[in-house]
Amino acid sequence: MKIVLGGDHAAADFLPVIAKCLTDRGHELLELTAPAAERCDYPKVAEQAAREVASGRCDAGVLICGTGIGVSIAANKVRGIRAATCCDTYMARMAKEHNNANIICVGARVVADPGIALSIVEAWLDAEVQGGRHAERVGMIEEIERREH
After folding, report:
1. Alpha-carbon distance 3 to 134, whole Å?
2. Catalytic residues
3. Which domain holds residue 61?
4. How does the average pLDDT of the chain come out, rounded?
5. Beta carbons within 8 Å of 88's beta carbon, 6+ residues apart
6. What's the predicted TM-score (pTM) here?
7. How far apart are CA 86 and CA 69, in angstroms?
């Protein structure tokens, strides 16, 4: 799977840990990150990552900012994106299983530990999309998106 990984300056300590895990698991990586000491505007990174996923150039995305909220809001402005902010492994599993989230967003200042962020990302990666009523609801979300554009 090809995964886009992006983050702002708040994510600097988290990105190398997550990048290593993703590549160790055999995923191809597209990294959209700024040097650790440089300020980076999360909406630009989130939009670029979301466009990579929406276009099909990447299969999924992982975004990190201070809270995970900003990158989620920005990414969700791109048609076809279902970006979910998750602060624990349960939320991450549900984001994939029930909502078919194609981007996971994590808050570096919320989870405060790269190891915890890694467990959240791994839970999301390991989860499987469930069909049935969940697929119907994702379809309803997609219908809202079509009406809004």
Report:
1. 24
2. 65, 98
3. 2-148
4. 94
5. 120
6. 0.93
7. 9
